[in-house]
Structure formats: C-alpha cells, structure tokens
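ESCALATION

Customer reports they have been waiting on this structure for their group meeting. Please prioritize. Original submission:
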Amino acid sequence: MHRRRNLLTALAPFGAAASPDLTILPLFLAAGAVGVGPALGVLIAFALATVAVMVGLTLAAAKGASLLTAPWIERRASALTAVTLLVIGVLVVTGVL
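Update from on-call: job pushed to the front of the queue and completed.
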C-alpha cells in the first residue's frame, strides 16, 4: 500500500501536465483512488487526445493560412502580426478573452 501511494504521488504532476487545462485533474485523482492502472490509462488517454487535437488544429490553421496568398499580405505581414497581437492583448487586458 505504501509503495502504491508513493507511485501515485509521483504521478500526480504528470496528471496535471497531460492537458493544457486542468479538466483532467478530477478524473486523474478519481482514477488514482482506484489504482495505478486506471490513473495511467486516464493520463495516456488525455495526453493522446491533447496531442491529436493540437496537431489537428495546427494542420488546419496551416492549411487555411496557405490559402491566403494575396500580395498585400506578404508586404504587410509584420504589421498584420503586430496588429493581431495588439488586439489580442487589449482583449485579454479588458477581460473579453
């Protein structure tokens, strides 16, 4: 029992790191109460789902960006990036995002 508790204690940070948000934490803790196997299963499932979604969204964004081939975009790429970051920053500071 003592060895199992030590292993679950060592795995807890990985449970929190398996997903960008902490929605996994209650599931991981509940699975950890059952045993190490279920805890590892939840950890692996969330990690795989997180990686799959991140890769899928990145590929979709890259595909969408490749469709934007207007010459004015290439000339003003730096300004577009700066304006985008400023708008996002303002939205975050004002609490909209």
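Sent to customer with the following note: The chain has five helices and no strands.
Escalation resolved.
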